[in-house]
């Protein structure tokens, strides 16, 4: 089944635009494939070092080059809830590999930081570039050239995009992503948000706030709201990098472990040593990325992926743009309402039918390319399922439910929540920006008000506490881009601006920084590019300038003459506090080399 004409047309222009870089990339992949089983090119000394710590059986298999060797790249640490479950995965994977006649080795670890811990803290200024460090760290592990395939253990915000960039850089190897799943449901997200607002207004204390937060984030697994972490898992499944149904099974359950064993065996089955060779660089193509963007819009996913998807695609020689994402959004309906786009969490989404129901609906309505390759084989249709634990402890699958288990959470393509996905590009004399409106009420999607300019989120919060912001205004928070301070998420603005909006004030945000993957009810023009430190016009806006943010028309304008704006001297705040502390000095080179947000904000690549 072919996709709708609009989807096909957008895909065709991505293919055409990408031809030079994609062809060069595929040539590199094919050259790496043609060199044959990779351990055969290692000297005896190389190989001996590579299996020195293995047991006798694995040593014999690797020495004789008779078995496939599976490299494990892991983001395990036991401080962060999403990554703690990965502690047991290497042993599970190694046992599964042995049962399949193969070998598995932990090839390397990658750092995994949590934006939830670092929000509003200096460490947050390392967050975006940690994605690039993760990609490079994975590359170091795989550079030993000992492996026939790789599995990637990652979940959260920058970890999965960085791992995808690494997997596609090693595109001659098959790759399967193995998630840990979301924590079980705790305090409802809307109740958590209510307590946060009460705290910001001084109506409850820190003890009450911490109690609410601890009841929300209470155990192993990802946070249950639909931010970047859970958007990652949706992407990996709809792009065919997970085994079917793997995304949203809770940690430390028999089905979760069965899916992990299955993924390890499947990775060994698709190496060049077998009959189903599936190198990830050829498997993932322009259609795969279009499917990912469709899924992002159909679920109201994270705005962070308007940066990450571009960087991930670039690693495969594919030139994806903001305009592509926006145009796909215009023709993709919203089928899921998960917090902050609704009251449900991802466990409710999964219980309502989850990824299998969503994929089936999108396939049947022609929004997805069905004829893609996946780690499971040809075509995306096998992902329109619901996973179960079989009596023998393996994974079984049944067709996705015909009806949603909760049509307030997950709906059909014939009865959509809204006709578009809600991600749009804004353009005007300020530059280009991204906005997500799936959780913004229609009456708040066009805001025209005087600017109030800040150079940090702390400045804005201080003005709120001083009682200076109880009016209509557009907050311009600048010098928050990749070059200025690593483009942190400005999550602390969400609560304050939400309070003002609830009071009836017309408020919005314009920033060259990022908002949380849980961008919500306040209209926010984010990722403004060029950023202030890169000569962007956002650096020339002054207090009192009337700014118009029109998410319906897709415009972002300062209502002064273009000549007046261009003639102003750009602001030059003291940014030296961004340079040191919490490791920021080690990232100075990455800030200097960072590409613009619309190009993926990577510190390497073209």
Automatic annotation (TrEMBL):
GO molecular function: 4 iron, 4 sulfur cluster binding; metal ion binding; phosphogluconate dehydratase activity
InterPro entries according to UniProt: 6-phosphgluc_deHydtase (IPR004786), Dihydro-acid_dehy_C (IPR042096), DiOHA_6PGluconate_deHydtase_CS (IPR020558), ILV_EDD_C (IPR056740), ILV_EDD_N (IPR000581), IlvD/EDD_N (IPR037237)
Alphabetical list of Gene3D superfamilies matching this protein: IlvD/EDD C-terminal domain-like
Pathway, per record: Carbohydrate metabolism; Entner-Doudoroff pathway
GO cellular component entries: cytosol
Reaction equations catalysed: 6-phospho-D-gluconate = 2-dehydro-3-deoxy-6-phospho-D-gluconate + H2O
E.C. designation(s): 4.2.1.12
Family matches, as SUPFAM superfamilies: IlvD/EDD N-terminal domain-like, LeuD/IlvD-like
Binding-site positions, [4Fe-4S] cluster: 156, 223
Domain of life: Bacteria
Enzyme class label: lyase
Gene Ontology BP term (one): D-gluconate metabolic process
Pfam families tied to this protein: ILV_EDD_C, ILVD_EDD_N
Co-factor binding details: Binds 1 [4Fe-4S] cluster.
Required cofactor names: [4Fe-4S] cluster
Annotated ranges, domain Dihydroxy-acid/6-phosphogluconate dehydratase N-terminal: 69-380
Family per similarity comment: Belongs to the IlvD/Edd family.
Primary role: Catalyzes the dehydration of 6-phospho-D-gluconate to 2-dehydro-3-deoxy-6-phospho-D-gluconate.
Name of this chain's protein: Phosphogluconate dehydratase
